[in-house]
Amino acid sequence: MMIKKTICALLLAGLLPLASMAQDSTQFIKASWNELLAKAKKEKKPIFVDTYFEGCHACKDMEVRVFPSKDVKQYMLDNFINTGFDVFKEEFGNDLCARYMLHGFPTYLVISPEGKLVSMDLGYHDADVFLKFLKEAIARYKTGKFHDGFATTIAKEGPQWYQQFYSKSREFPKDSIVRDFLAKQKDKKAEMTVKAMALCRSLPADYRAYYLANRQSYKDLFGIDVNTGILDNIMKKDMLELPSKYDEAAFNEFLKKHETEYAAGGDWDKIKMDFAMMFMVRNNKNAKAFIEFSIANQDKNENNARVLPFYNYEAFKDPEVTELYLKWVRTLVNEGSSLELLSSLAQRTKEKYPEESKKYAAWASAKAAVMGMSK
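Above: the chain sequence. Below: its structure as C-alpha cells.
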C-alpha cells in the first residue's frame, strides 16, 4: 500500500494536519469505575486507562495516529478493557491524578481487575513503540507483577496540603510543610510519604541518601511518575554545585563525585546523559559539547537526538555542529526510530546527502503507513 506523495511531503515537513489522519478508535468505552472493574473481572482482562486533557497536542496525536492503527487497536480490543478520562473536566480523572500522582499527559495506566497498578507510561509514542508497551504490560499482568506501593482504590487521600495540590487551584505546598510531614514519618516507603518526597524540592539528607540507595525498589513499588518527581528534585539541587558557565573539567569532576550514589538505581548511563543535557544544553546552549559528550559516551538515547535541535536551534546554523550531530545520530537511528526523528533527518540530509535522505524518508513513510496515513 503506497503513501500519497503529497501526504509524505507534508509529513516530512512536519506540516501534516492531524484532522487528515483521524481514524476510528472505538475500542474505548465510557463507564463508571465500578462498572469497568466488574467488566474486567468478568472478562479476566486488565483495564487500560488513557489520561488526557483537551488541548494536549500529544494526547490528540495518540487519539488520531496511534490508538486507531490496526495492530494497536486489535491488541487493545483483545487484551484490555479500554477507557479514558479527561483529568481537568472529569472528577474521576483528577482522582486518578491524585492516587498515582500524575504530572504529565497523556499518561497511560494499566490496572488489574483487583485495582492493582500493573504498568504506567507517558507521552506520545509511535504505534510500534506503544504496542511494545502494551505487550510488556500484559506480560507483567500474566506473571503477577504489580506496582504494589499504591492502594487499590481510587480516591483523594492524604493531608490537606496534598489534597489542595490536586484541587482546582493546584496550590503547590511550601517545602517547610512537606519537610515537617516527612520528619514525622516512620516508613520511608509508605505511599503518602513517597508522594511527599516527590513534592519536596529539597529532601532531608536522610531521605535523599535512603532514596538513592534504594531507588530500584522505589521504582518497583511506584513506577515512573512519582520516581521522576523525586529524582528530578534531587538532580536539580545537585546541579547547583556546577558553575554557571560551561566548564568541562568541573562537569567531569561533578560526575565522578556523584556516580556511586546515583549508580545504585541501575541507570547511571542515563542519569549521566540527563545531567549533560541540563548543564550543557539547557543551561549553556552548548550543543557541540553535548554531541561530543554523547559520542564519547556512546549514548544511544534517541530522545536526546530528537529534542536537541529544538533546545539549541541556533547552534545548528553552524555546519560543523550539523555534521557532528549526523555523525552521532547515524550510530543510533534505524527503521524503528520515531517518525518525528526520521522526518527531521530526511529534511536535514536532503541537500548534502540525498541518498541518505531517501532512506530516512522511506523509513518514515513505512511508519506512516502503519499508522494509517495511506490510500
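The CA atoms of residues 19 and 129 lie 22 Å apart.
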